[in-house]
Amino acid sequence: MSPYSRRLHLGDRLRNLRQEQERSIQQVAKEADIDRTLLTRIETGQRRVAADVSMKVAEHLGVEQHSPLWQEFYALARDAAQSGWWEGRAFRGLSDRQALPADLEAGASRIRWYDFALVPGLLQSPAYVRARHDATVTNDHSSDNPVEIRARERRQQEALTEGGPRIEVIVEETVVRRRVVPAPAMLEQLEHLLKLIDANEQIDFRILPVGGELLGLRAPRSPVSIYEFAAGDPPLVFVESLTDDVLLRDHAEVANHERLWKRLHEIALPPDESRVLIARSAEILAKEQ
Protein backbone atom coordinates (compact mmCIF):
# COMPACT_ATOMS: atom_id res chain seq x y z
CA MET A 1 0.00 0.00 0.00
CA SER A 2 1.31 3.44 -0.98
CA PRO A 3 0.24 6.09 1.56
CA TYR A 4 1.03 8.83 -0.94
CA SER A 5 -1.13 7.43 -3.75
CA ARG A 6 -3.89 6.86 -1.18
CA ARG A 7 -3.63 10.50 -0.05
CA LEU A 8 -3.89 11.69 -3.64
CA HIS A 9 -6.94 9.51 -4.24
CA LEU A 10 -8.58 10.62 -0.99
CA GLY A 11 -7.93 14.28 -1.78
CA ASP A 12 -9.44 13.90 -5.25
CA ARG A 13 -12.57 12.25 -3.82
CA LEU A 14 -13.05 14.97 -1.19
CA ARG A 15 -12.47 17.78 -3.68
CA ASN A 16 -14.92 16.25 -6.17
CA LEU A 17 -17.57 16.00 -3.46
CA ARG A 18 -17.07 19.62 -2.48
CA GLN A 19 -17.15 20.87 -6.06
CA GLU A 20 -20.28 18.86 -6.88
CA GLN A 21 -21.98 20.74 -4.05
CA GLU A 22 -20.57 24.04 -5.34
CA ARG A 23 -19.06 24.81 -1.96
CA SER A 24 -15.81 26.70 -1.48
CA ILE A 25 -12.84 25.53 0.56
CA GLN A 26 -13.47 28.46 2.91
CA GLN A 27 -17.06 27.31 3.54
CA VAL A 28 -16.20 23.71 4.28
CA ALA A 29 -13.16 24.63 6.39
CA LYS A 30 -15.27 26.96 8.52
CA GLU A 31 -18.11 24.45 8.94
CA ALA A 32 -15.73 21.62 9.82
CA ASP A 33 -13.62 23.89 12.04
CA ILE A 34 -10.47 23.08 10.07
CA ASP A 35 -7.77 25.48 8.93
CA ARG A 36 -8.33 26.42 5.28
CA THR A 37 -4.68 25.81 4.38
CA LEU A 38 -4.83 22.36 5.97
CA LEU A 39 -7.95 21.48 3.97
CA THR A 40 -6.22 22.61 0.77
CA ARG A 41 -3.28 20.34 1.54
CA ILE A 42 -5.60 17.43 2.29
CA GLU A 43 -7.34 17.91 -1.06
CA THR A 44 -4.03 18.02 -2.92
CA GLY A 45 -2.61 15.04 -1.01
CA GLN A 46 0.34 17.06 0.27
CA ARG A 47 -0.36 16.60 3.97
CA ARG A 48 -0.76 13.46 6.04
CA VAL A 49 -3.48 13.81 8.68
CA ALA A 50 -5.17 11.45 11.10
CA ALA A 51 -8.05 9.47 9.61
CA ASP A 52 -10.61 11.17 11.86
CA VAL A 53 -9.68 14.58 10.42
CA SER A 54 -10.34 13.39 6.87
CA MET A 55 -13.59 11.74 7.96
CA LYS A 56 -14.70 14.94 9.64
CA VAL A 57 -14.42 16.67 6.26
CA ALA A 58 -16.22 13.82 4.48
CA GLU A 59 -19.09 13.91 6.97
CA HIS A 60 -19.47 17.68 6.57
CA LEU A 61 -19.76 17.00 2.85
CA GLY A 62 -22.75 14.74 3.44
CA VAL A 63 -21.18 11.30 3.75
CA GLU A 64 -23.41 9.49 6.26
CA GLN A 65 -21.66 7.68 9.08
CA HIS A 66 -21.22 3.93 8.55
CA SER A 67 -22.83 4.01 5.11
CA PRO A 68 -21.08 2.05 2.30
CA LEU A 69 -19.66 5.35 1.01
CA TRP A 70 -18.43 6.22 4.50
CA GLN A 71 -16.69 2.86 4.69
CA GLU A 72 -14.94 3.59 1.37
CA PHE A 73 -13.74 6.96 2.62
CA TYR A 74 -12.64 5.49 5.93
CA ALA A 75 -10.52 2.83 4.22
CA LEU A 76 -8.88 5.55 2.12
CA ALA A 77 -8.36 7.85 5.12
CA ARG A 78 -6.87 5.05 7.23
CA ASP A 79 -4.39 4.06 4.51
CA ALA A 80 -3.52 7.69 3.74
CA ALA A 81 -2.57 8.26 7.39
CA GLN A 82 -0.01 5.44 7.44
CA SER A 83 3.76 5.87 7.31
CA GLY A 84 6.26 3.55 5.62
CA TRP A 85 9.69 2.09 6.36
CA TRP A 86 11.33 4.95 4.40
CA GLU A 87 10.15 7.34 7.14
CA GLY A 88 11.60 5.32 10.00
CA ARG A 89 14.48 6.35 12.22
CA ALA A 90 16.91 4.10 10.34
CA PHE A 91 16.30 6.13 7.18
CA ARG A 92 16.30 9.60 8.70
CA GLY A 93 17.76 12.06 6.19
CA LEU A 94 16.59 10.10 3.16
CA SER A 95 16.06 12.36 0.16
CA ASP A 96 12.64 12.81 -1.45
CA ARG A 97 14.12 11.38 -4.66
CA GLN A 98 14.35 8.01 -2.92
CA ALA A 99 11.47 8.30 -0.45
CA LEU A 100 8.78 9.01 -3.04
CA PRO A 101 9.64 6.07 -5.34
CA ALA A 102 9.83 3.82 -2.25
CA ASP A 103 6.34 4.97 -1.28
CA LEU A 104 4.92 4.39 -4.77
CA GLU A 105 6.61 0.99 -5.10
CA ALA A 106 5.07 -0.12 -1.81
CA GLY A 107 1.59 0.00 -3.32
CA ALA A 108 2.32 -0.76 -6.95
CA SER A 109 0.95 -3.83 -8.69
CA ARG A 110 2.80 -2.99 -11.90
CA ILE A 111 5.75 -0.72 -12.70
CA ARG A 112 6.68 0.10 -16.28
CA TRP A 113 10.12 1.63 -16.64
CA TYR A 114 11.99 3.21 -19.56
CA ASP A 115 15.61 4.35 -19.44
CA PHE A 116 17.98 5.37 -22.21
CA ALA A 117 21.23 5.54 -20.22
CA LEU A 118 21.25 3.43 -17.06
CA VAL A 119 19.95 0.17 -15.65
CA PRO A 120 16.83 1.02 -13.60
CA GLY A 121 17.56 1.36 -9.90
CA LEU A 122 15.59 -1.67 -8.72
CA LEU A 123 17.72 -3.89 -10.95
CA GLN A 124 21.15 -2.40 -10.25
CA SER A 125 23.90 -4.58 -8.77
CA PRO A 126 25.86 -3.41 -5.68
CA ALA A 127 29.04 -2.62 -7.64
CA TYR A 128 27.06 -0.73 -10.29
CA VAL A 129 25.36 1.34 -7.58
CA ARG A 130 28.67 2.19 -5.88
CA ALA A 131 30.35 3.09 -9.17
CA ARG A 132 27.48 5.33 -10.22
CA HIS A 133 27.51 7.07 -6.83
CA ASP A 134 31.25 7.69 -7.16
CA ALA A 135 30.71 9.22 -10.60
CA THR A 136 27.69 11.33 -9.70
CA VAL A 137 27.97 14.94 -8.64
CA THR A 138 24.91 16.63 -7.17
CA ASN A 139 24.46 19.94 -5.45
CA ASP A 140 23.45 18.37 -2.15
CA HIS A 141 25.74 15.32 -2.43
CA SER A 142 22.79 13.16 -1.34
CA SER A 143 24.13 10.27 -3.39
CA ASP A 144 27.10 10.05 -0.98
CA ASN A 145 24.79 9.56 2.00
CA PRO A 146 24.98 5.96 3.31
CA VAL A 147 21.25 6.19 4.03
CA GLU A 148 20.62 6.54 0.29
CA ILE A 149 22.49 3.31 -0.45
CA ARG A 150 20.70 1.43 2.33
CA ALA A 151 17.36 2.72 1.08
CA ARG A 152 18.04 1.56 -2.46
CA GLU A 153 18.93 -1.90 -1.14
CA ARG A 154 15.71 -1.97 0.91
CA ARG A 155 13.68 -0.87 -2.12
CA GLN A 156 15.15 -3.74 -4.13
CA GLN A 157 14.38 -6.23 -1.36
CA GLU A 158 10.78 -5.05 -1.09
CA ALA A 159 10.07 -4.89 -4.83
CA LEU A 160 11.76 -8.14 -5.83
CA THR A 161 10.21 -10.28 -3.12
CA GLU A 162 7.47 -12.81 -3.85
CA GLY A 163 4.22 -10.91 -4.21
CA GLY A 164 6.01 -7.76 -5.35
CA PRO A 165 4.91 -5.69 -8.34
CA ARG A 166 5.27 -6.82 -11.92
CA ILE A 167 8.27 -4.93 -13.29
CA GLU A 168 8.34 -4.26 -17.02
CA VAL A 169 11.51 -2.61 -18.27
CA ILE A 170 12.48 -1.17 -21.63
CA VAL A 171 16.02 0.16 -22.04
CA GLU A 172 18.01 1.35 -25.02
CA GLU A 173 20.59 -1.13 -26.31
CA THR A 174 23.37 1.21 -25.20
CA VAL A 175 22.40 0.57 -21.56
CA VAL A 176 23.85 -2.95 -21.76
CA ARG A 177 26.70 -2.07 -24.11
CA ARG A 178 28.06 1.34 -23.12
CA ARG A 179 30.35 1.33 -20.10
CA VAL A 180 29.08 3.94 -17.68
CA VAL A 181 30.96 2.17 -14.86
CA PRO A 182 34.34 0.37 -14.77
CA ALA A 183 34.42 -2.94 -16.66
CA PRO A 184 34.31 -5.20 -13.55
CA ALA A 185 31.24 -3.38 -12.24
CA MET A 186 29.61 -3.49 -15.67
CA LEU A 187 30.23 -7.23 -15.93
CA GLU A 188 28.75 -7.77 -12.48
CA GLN A 189 25.72 -5.75 -13.53
CA LEU A 190 25.11 -7.74 -16.69
CA GLU A 191 25.44 -11.04 -14.82
CA HIS A 192 23.15 -9.67 -12.11
CA LEU A 193 20.54 -8.81 -14.74
CA LEU A 194 20.68 -12.31 -16.20
CA LYS A 195 20.17 -13.86 -12.76
CA LEU A 196 17.25 -11.55 -11.96
CA ILE A 197 15.55 -12.21 -15.28
CA ASP A 198 15.95 -15.98 -14.89
CA ALA A 199 14.84 -16.08 -11.25
CA ASN A 200 11.91 -13.63 -11.26
CA GLU A 201 8.84 -14.25 -13.39
CA GLN A 202 7.57 -10.82 -12.42
CA ILE A 203 10.39 -9.14 -14.39
CA ASP A 204 9.90 -8.48 -18.10
CA PHE A 205 13.12 -6.98 -19.47
CA ARG A 206 13.23 -5.74 -23.07
CA ILE A 207 15.87 -3.93 -25.08
CA LEU A 208 15.14 -1.27 -27.66
CA PRO A 209 17.66 -2.11 -30.42
CA VAL A 210 19.75 0.56 -32.07
CA GLY A 211 18.27 -0.52 -35.40
CA GLY A 212 14.68 -0.17 -34.20
CA GLU A 213 12.63 2.36 -36.14
CA LEU A 214 11.08 5.21 -34.17
CA LEU A 215 9.48 6.83 -37.20
CA GLY A 216 6.77 9.25 -36.16
CA LEU A 217 7.47 8.53 -32.49
CA ARG A 218 8.76 11.05 -29.98
CA ALA A 219 11.08 9.06 -27.73
CA PRO A 220 11.27 10.00 -24.04
CA ARG A 221 14.04 12.45 -23.17
CA SER A 222 14.23 11.33 -19.55
CA PRO A 223 13.84 8.10 -17.61
CA VAL A 224 10.14 7.45 -17.07
CA SER A 225 8.27 5.05 -14.82
CA ILE A 226 4.53 4.37 -14.79
CA TYR A 227 2.94 3.05 -11.60
CA GLU A 228 -0.31 1.11 -11.36
CA PHE A 229 -1.73 0.35 -7.93
CA ALA A 230 -3.32 -2.75 -6.44
CA ALA A 231 -5.67 -0.58 -4.39
CA GLY A 232 -7.23 0.87 -7.53
CA ASP A 233 -5.72 4.33 -7.19
CA PRO A 234 -5.25 6.17 -10.52
CA PRO A 235 -1.91 5.46 -12.26
CA LEU A 236 0.96 7.91 -11.83
CA VAL A 237 3.94 8.80 -14.03
CA PHE A 238 7.34 9.56 -12.51
CA VAL A 239 9.77 11.50 -14.75
CA GLU A 240 13.41 11.79 -13.67
CA SER A 241 15.96 14.47 -14.49
CA LEU A 242 19.51 15.19 -13.36
CA THR A 243 18.56 17.32 -10.35
CA ASP A 244 14.82 16.91 -9.85
CA ASP A 245 11.86 14.63 -10.53
CA VAL A 246 8.29 15.31 -11.61
CA LEU A 247 5.20 13.30 -10.71
CA LEU A 248 2.43 13.50 -13.32
CA ARG A 249 -1.18 12.89 -12.30
CA ASP A 250 -3.20 14.54 -15.07
CA HIS A 251 -5.22 11.88 -16.91
CA ALA A 252 -4.24 13.21 -20.34
CA GLU A 253 -0.52 13.31 -19.48
CA VAL A 254 -0.63 9.80 -18.01
CA ALA A 255 -2.50 8.52 -21.08
CA ASN A 256 0.13 10.07 -23.38
CA HIS A 257 2.92 8.24 -21.55
CA GLU A 258 0.97 4.98 -21.60
CA ARG A 259 0.50 5.26 -25.37
CA LEU A 260 4.20 5.99 -25.78
CA TRP A 261 5.08 2.98 -23.64
CA LYS A 262 2.86 0.77 -25.78
CA ARG A 263 4.66 1.89 -28.94
CA LEU A 264 8.11 1.34 -27.41
CA HIS A 265 6.98 -2.08 -26.23
CA GLU A 266 6.01 -2.98 -29.80
CA ILE A 267 9.45 -1.99 -31.11
CA ALA A 268 11.56 -3.52 -28.33
CA LEU A 269 13.07 -6.99 -28.62
CA PRO A 270 11.13 -9.76 -26.84
CA PRO A 271 12.56 -10.98 -23.50
CA ASP A 272 14.37 -14.02 -24.92
CA GLU A 273 16.17 -12.00 -27.60
CA SER A 274 16.95 -9.28 -25.07
CA ARG A 275 18.49 -11.88 -22.79
CA VAL A 276 20.71 -13.10 -25.62
CA LEU A 277 21.96 -9.56 -26.20
CA ILE A 278 22.75 -9.11 -22.49
CA ALA A 279 24.59 -12.44 -22.38
CA ARG A 280 26.59 -11.52 -25.49
CA SER A 281 27.66 -8.21 -23.93
CA ALA A 282 28.68 -10.05 -20.75
CA GLU A 283 30.75 -12.56 -22.72
CA ILE A 284 32.62 -9.80 -24.52
CA LEU A 285 33.41 -8.06 -21.22
CA ALA A 286 34.46 -11.30 -19.53
CA LYS A 287 37.00 -12.03 -22.27
CA GLU A 288 38.59 -8.64 -21.69
CA GLN A 289 39.12 -9.22 -17.97
From TrEMBL:
Signal peptide positions on this chain: none
Assigned keywords, A-Z: DNA-binding, Plasmid
One MF term in the entry's GO annotations: DNA binding
Organism: Nocardia farcinica (strain IFM 10152)
InterPro entries (UniProt xref): Cro/C1-type_HTH, DUF5753, Lambda_DNA-bd_dom_sf
Residues annotated as domain HTH cro/C1-type: 14-69
Name assigned to this protein: Putative DNA-binding protein
Domain of life from the UniProt record: Bacteria
Keyword DNA-binding: yes
